[in-house]
Amino acid sequence: MTTIPARPGRLVVPRDRVWRRTQIVGVLGPLDVPSPPRLRDALYRLAAIAPGRPPLCTLDRAGTRWRPVPGPRLAEHLDRVVRPLDPDVGGADDVLALVERGLRTPPADLPLRISVGGEHVLVEMSHLVGDGRHLDLYWSELLGRALDGGVPTLAAHAGPRLALPRAFAATFARHPGRLAAIARGAGAAAGDTPLTERGGGAGPDGGADPAFVARHTGPELLRAVRDARGGRDTGRSVAGILFAAAWSAVARAGLPAPAPGLWVLFDGRRFLPVPAGGVGNFVAGVYLEPADPRDPVAISTAMRAVIDSGRPVATMAAAAAKQLAPPIPLPRRGRGPAAPPSRPAPTLAVNFLPRLPGFTGLPWRASPGERTLALASTPGGPGGITVTMAELDGCLHVSITFDGALFERKAVRAMAELLCADPLGLVR
């Protein structure tokens, strides 16, 4: 095999650096899980061909530089990366309780940490490593190669060089009018505040206080949603139906009425003129203001307009360029008593991950309707509610992260239950 040399202390590319404040915590089970030694062995095999890849690195304090771990310290490092689950952790509910802890206290210098035991896996990953679409193949490959003794080849590659410039050129070089239209638009990409920069991280320093709930359905719900979508001439999409239902579920669950728009994550890989394998982060958060956020047709129409314009690529480019500018100092905080938290209108962020082939291929020990797949990410600042909806073997898995200092867990749990009970009853 060809060895990929490690570059000491290399910078995180600006496209990834956008996500340095965001943590992803996931739970999968019940399934056949590798023992910690077997998972570490898979990472040793990765180190033999690609010693500088993220699982074999630490991060500097700012989250802007990868620091490859030297060979003599690799065993110590992998003991930190791969851990046994606490033996007191029993079923899925116990593991789900660990998700919130992972969001509140992420490992400061580890881009990836995996805890395995019993029938469940808990993964804590910096968004610097990859986005929701990437982690499906990335996590499942690490687990699969640990079980079968193979080499995790996807984790060994970083994707095509200059991916963002190539996508930008392919999208706008022949259609410069697209970029001009985006710049003129009321929601220009340069004016979009990236989801990742709306908050200052978790905890008492002014950012969100992360909390989390999860629910899932049987296969009949998504079948009903697809039936309701109808043909292409209806103007509806599955994502549009689910996003409209999520927006409506906020107030229906007893939370403050949300702002009239919503953040939607768009996968930018569709704009790449070359195969996107290995590209970790290639998504853009774009704020949509549909004519009626309760209407799936309005949301689907707004999403198609964003894709047709190339705005996700422009947004990614603007956000990456912003990382190259000197940071703006934050104002000093006064030492007076903290004001009690207000109840602002929630800012909703939504994502739908359909048909996850990597996770589907794992050795599950339960039928599709009895599986747990939770994918939680740092909420987008105070007032943020992030809804991640993932399809696994035809079943919908809903994960919601929110600011626990502002929103009642009971109400957010009701929101998740509404989405899993009757999303079609929530939309126009």
From TrEMBL:
Name of this chain's protein: Condensation domain-containing protein
